[in-house]
Amino acid sequence: MAASVYCSGKVLRTFGRNCQSKNANTLFLRCASTSQKRKASSKGATPKQTGRNIVLVEGVRTPFLMAGTSYADLLSHDLQRGALEGLVSRTGISKDAVDHIIIGTVIQEVKTSNIAREAALGAGFSDKTPCHTVTMACISSNQAITAGIGLIASGQCDTVIAGGVEFMSDVPIRLSRPLRKTLLTLNKAKSLGARLGLLSKIRPNFLSPELPAVAEFSTGESMGHSGDRLAASFGISRQEQDEFALRSHTMAHTAASAGKLEDIVPYKVPGRTVTVSADNGIRVSTPQQMAKLKPAFIKPHGTVTAANASFLTDGASACLIMSEEKALAMGFKPKAYLREFVYVSQDPKDQLLLGPTYATPKVLDKAGLKMEDIDVFEYHEAFAGQILANLKAMDSDWFAQNYMGRTSKVGVPPMEKFNTWGGSLSIGHPFGATGVRLITTAANRLQKEGGQYGLIAACAAGGLGHAAIVERYPS
């Protein structure tokens, strides 16, 4: 089907044709950088020198599981508590030494609206430790990390735990609004007659529940639908998407088999004898099997399927970030310096998933680096088509000039450096937890591979995006 069927008049009809230019709305947040003189990269680039050194000491996560499997009977704070406990066990940090805890999440459980606080108390942290919860769609734990960076950079804290959680096995389902209004009014009725009168107004259609959906409030469109249109706009075939998804699963399987996914901490499921120690969504298929699946969103001509999209996932993550001087004073060996970061935003209808394209050059410019200076790339994989669309946009002078206000293209990450331990398509994507996985994986890869700089990037609902630079801590 022609790409124009999927596209609105505001952006690409078919990739490469002229269309209306649109500048991204970008929010820059300053990251604390090194005050010491760092070794220049091979291209002579050095990070900015703007303040305290802030380091990633360690990052962990529970195994990421497909929704409705071994975690199905839990609550989200159970998983986040497990991640916090795993971080404490892995690092040996005293719970009393933590100045602040920040947790990201997307779909709130109403019983634990400040899930950071409830999970921290459940994990045995002091009731004197402040905790707060943030949300920024799929980059919620990215926001938790950068909020922690801000607290440390400003001198408010030296030691922060940042993390995130998502629990898709039991999302809130609401009563219809007419029924909610009736029941709330019924609760205030003072007489039996008044109550009976209100009950008599309830109609059968009131009983239809409001089911949650992974959809944009501003457009009413599901993210999968947007992913389909984006792939069509950039001329990305079903075969290309399936091949990339197969790459993700194959690399995740290889990394897991080699013991490289060391950020996982085993999780004992409360009330059961089950201890989960591995992700369960990594499944290496074949092109023939993947080709049999039907389109999931736009039928019958869409190209996004269950095989080339990230699946609904339960999981939690947590990382320990500190000022360098505090970490060394406490005897820790950091994994990485946390350098520059940016947040970006675009049109949530036509450029919903292009956050990495806009964020990547901005964070490189802030850090004084170039694409060739980066040794490790960790990009969030919402859909195979989303990743491939970003790579095509980043490799286009036309897109850079017409949409980004740049004179030339961003450039494409070399695939031999890109998500080589798998990504969200295979490992899973608990909305609020993925950011910590990205930054921890980048740091772990730098340590194992001997590179200097890593770049993480992610898209998010609302047309948002994030990118950050990490630097390997010297041995």
UniProtKB/TrEMBL annotation:
The keyword Acyltransferase applies. Its main location: endoplasmic reticulum. Pfam families: Thiolase_C, Thiolase_N. Belongs to the thiolase-like superfamily. Thiolase family. It comes from Desmophyllum pertusum. Keywords: Acetylation, Acyltransferase, Endoplasmic reticulum, Fatty acid metabolism, Lipid metabolism, Membrane, Mitochondrion, Mitochondrion inner membrane, Mitochondrion outer membrane, Transferase, Transit peptide. InterPro entries: Thiolase, Thiolase-like, Thiolase_acyl_enz_int_AS, Thiolase_AS, Thiolase_C, Thiolase_CS, Thiolase_N. PANTHER family: ACETYL-COA C-ACYLTRANSFERASE (PTHR18919), TRIFUNCTIONAL ENZYME SUBUNIT BETA, MITOCHONDRIAL (PTHR18919:SF153). The keyword Electron transport does not apply. This is Trifunctional enzyme subunit beta, mitochondrial. Its EC number is 2.3.1.155, 2.3.1.16. It is found in: Endoplasmic reticulum; Mitochondrion inner membrane; Mitochondrion outer membrane. One of its GO terms (cellular component) is endoplasmic reticulum. Heterotetramer of 2 alpha/HADHA and 2 beta/HADHB subunits; forms the mitochondrial trifunctional enzyme. Also purified as higher order heterooligomers including a 4 alpha/HADHA and 4 beta/HADHB heterooligomer which physiological significance remains unclear. The mitochondrial trifunctional enzyme interacts with MTLN. Interacts with RSAD2/viperin.
